[in-house]
Amino acid sequence: MVDVRTAESTALRPPLAGWVEAPVNYLADLSIKPVTYNPPYGTGLPRREGNYRNFTVRVHDARSIVRDLSLDRQAFILTRHDTEVRDFYDEEDVRTKYHAEVEALIKRETGASKVVVFDHTVRTADRAVERGLRTPVRSVHNDYTEKSGPQRVRDLLSPEEAERRLQKRFAEYNVWRNIDHEPIEMAPLGFVDSESIAPRDLAVCDLVYADRTGEIYQGVYNADHRWFYFPKMTRNEAILIKCYDSLKDGRARFSLHSAFDDPTSPANPRPRQSIEARAFAFFD
Q1: Res 90: pLDDT
Q2: Where are the beta strands (DSSP E) in 50-129?
Q3: CA separation for the pair 163, 167 (Å, rounded)
Q4: Its pTM surpasses 0.85
Q5: What share of the chain is helix, strand, coil (3-state, %, to 5)?
């Protein structure tokens, strides 16, 4: 059984300042085992197996409750985060400057003693495949599972350090931001309040690459899910998303998120440009 919620719920309850209704892509059930086949960058789009369907959900504007959000309850927060990176399409600039900025941000927000930024993905809705980039992900998912979280630590660290770190608390966080100089108009990211996620809502999905197979959680539809987003995100804001937590003390351990089409977007919105950096936080 996967523990995803806090022991004492302090759930965020509507009404809030505003909301939109939009379809999001869930697994309707587990009649077909979910599998995603990911081609190499720039060669095509992922191919998915599974009984996926669009379900209309109410997505609440979370800007009015930013100070109430917690990584240990909702599993996502919004924070101001300035960056010295001028061009997020410059791989060298991202690895030398942005990874250090993300490390400092996660330490600041979590109190971790060590942070290892190990990966980042630039996404765009504008000719992504031909540019060797990824498109926004329009399915309800979480990046790590009970199994793949610890395995990724073993992949990244030396055997000795990995086993030592795995004896104490560790967590995986994604840091997501708009990299355009104008606010987001297309495909914002929506989040499910982790306190509204039941264990049965997390389905293991194999991720098949040319050289390896990993796994993530895909979200199974639950009408009780409470959805939130941050409209018109700017370049100096960042969202932290907790995708894994080893501690089983009742705090949020996993999350669910997805891009969606905001019905209040302009008729011809600017294509979304974003980056997510992934990192492990280790606690002493």
Answers
A1: 95
A2: 52-61, 76-80, 114-124
A3: 7
A4: yes
A5: 15, 35, 50
